[in-house]
Design a protein that fits this description.
binds 4'-deoxy-4'-aminopyridoxal-5'-phosphate; single chain; about 450 residues; globular; 7-stranded mixed β-sheet; 4-stranded mixed β-sheet; alpha/beta
């Protein structure tokens, strides 16, 4: 029974003897130097040495179809981003305490992609820092402390972000002012109303314990809760409930943002809501650390005037160059539309496989964030072992995915955004093969 948040499909160090000599030596060295905190994907860990587009390459030159990594959102080592980083690294890398137009140009472009109420942005380095900052802004603005999150939410690694991240497991205590609510289940027809009621009950419970609610904080795809994308709009009554209680709605777009859903630039736009604060991270710099919090200007006005905040590396010149280049590619290559199309093709293929294989159920997703459950066909119970067999079977066929959800029993497919129909077909063929062999 793991006492920490489950890290699905990680390499089991007690089975290191089964590895090839080089991998075995690297695993032992890693364990000695980095301690036990660092997990590796897959029963047979991969030594990656190069990336290009939607492919990773191992030390022997084998190509792996990367259907998992969302950070290199416009593709591994995209030449336009690489060139922008290199050019900027050879020109200037500085912090935000000097006048610099590229920072303002980027802020303007980024805010133009958001709803009109979000007029200002603060920049940091990681999604966790963005969560941390958004919580500070919300608490400062409302004078309240309470936060409502979903039952298996993940919002990051800083002390404040960990307090609102129940997926870290029982050894990482939630904050005393934090309440969790069950996410909608697959196919819930009244998902919005029932979910909003649970959020309201959590707010009432906080009040009962003497704490007003500062924020309802949600990943707009509920990805760590096993991916709950539908029906679009189900977050609307949730945001209404938050506002009625005087709380802010914070959309965590670290997963759903930058076109991932194939429907819009931001996951919250699929739900037709206007969050007060939006956190962004991971894909923002295609691998260069940059994150941010977009906000209603009045919120930043108060926070910025009354609280000192400086982030040494946040929005440094290289990060801004990378982030601007990412927007160039998303816009120039019409990526959002292409993601929508490739994602729909992938889901159709998965639904076809689910008709043939009763172990595969609940195909769901938005754009290129796609999940499906593996279950015991007799009972319908989630089957994390089968999921692990499938994930590792795909890895043997050089297709990389992972698992998601509280029980790690959902297949999680979340490739770089240039993943097209051909790549989806390759994944589907490999999956058909694995399902036939392993389930
Ligand atoms: N929010 C969500 C929804 C995330 O998925 C993550 C990272 N997995 C974070 C926040 C934290 O981001 P980072 O790892 O960059 O700190």
């Amino acid at each position: 029974m793991p006492t920490h948040g489950a890290m699905p499909n990680s390499f089991d160090p007690t089975r290191a003897d089964a590895l090839e000599p080089r991998a075995r030596a690297l695993v032992a060295r890693r364990r000695r130097l980095l301690g036990p905190g660092y997990k590796l994907f897959y029963e047979q860990p991969i030594e990656v040495v190069r990336g290009e587009g939607v492919h990773l390459f191992d030390a022997d030159g084998n190509a792996y179809l990367d259907a998992y990594n969302n950070v290199p959102c416009v593709g591994h080592c995209h030449p336009h981003v690489v060139e922008a980083i290199a050019r900027q690294a050879g020109t200037l890398n500085s912090n935000t305490r000097y006048l610099a137009e590229p920072l303002l140009d980027y802020a303007e472009r980024l805010l133009a992609t958001h709803h009109e109420g979000l007029g200002s942005v603060m920049l940091a380095c990681s999604g966790s820092e963005a969560t941390d900052l958004a919580l500070r802004i919300a608490r400062h603005a409302t004078g309240a402390k309470g936060v409502v999150v979903t039952a298996n939410a993940y919002h990051g690694v800083t002390a404040a972000a960990a307090e609102v991240s129940p997926s870290l497991g029982a050894n990482e205590p939630l904050g005393v002012h934090v309440r969790t609510v069950a996410p909608p289940g697959p196919g819930d027809t009244d998902a919005g109303a029932a979910f909003a009621l649970r959020v309201e009950e959590a707010i009432v419970d906080l009040r009962r314990h003497g704490t007003a609610t500062a924020a309802v904080l949600m990943d707009t795809l509920l990805s760590s809760d096993g991916l709950v994308p539908d029906p679009p709009g189900f977050l609307r009554p949730v945001a209404d409930v938050a506002h009625a209680a005087g709380a802010l709605f914070i959309a965590d777009e670290v997963q759903a943002g930058f076109g991932r859903t194939g429907a819009a630039m931001w996951g919250y736009q699929r739900h037709g809501i206007e969050p007060d604060l939006v956190t962004m991270g991971k894909p923002m710099g295609n691998g260069v650390p940059i994150s941010g919090v977009a906000a209603r200007p009045e919120l930043l006005e108060r926070f910025g005037n009354e609280v000192r905040y400086f982030n040494t590396f946040g929005a440094n010149s290289i990060a801004i160059a990378a982030a601007a280049a990412v927007l160039d590619v998303i816009e120039g290559d019409d990526l959002v539309a292409r993601v929508g199309e490739a994602g729909a093709h992938l889901r159709t293929g998965l639904a076809g496989l689910a008709r043939e294989h009763t172990v595969l159920r609940n195909v769901r997703g938005a754009g290129l964030y796609v999940a499906a459950d593996l279950v015991d066909p007799a009972t319908g119970a989630p089957d994390a072992r089968a999921t692990s067999r499938v994930v590792n079977g795909l890895r043997e066929r050089r297709v990389l995915i992972s698992a998601a959800g509280a029980t790690a029993s959902a297949l999680k497919v979340r490739p770089p955004l240039p993943f097209g129909r051909d790549h989806a077909d390759q994944l589907l063929a490999a999956l058909a093969d694995v399902l036939a062999a392993a389930c």
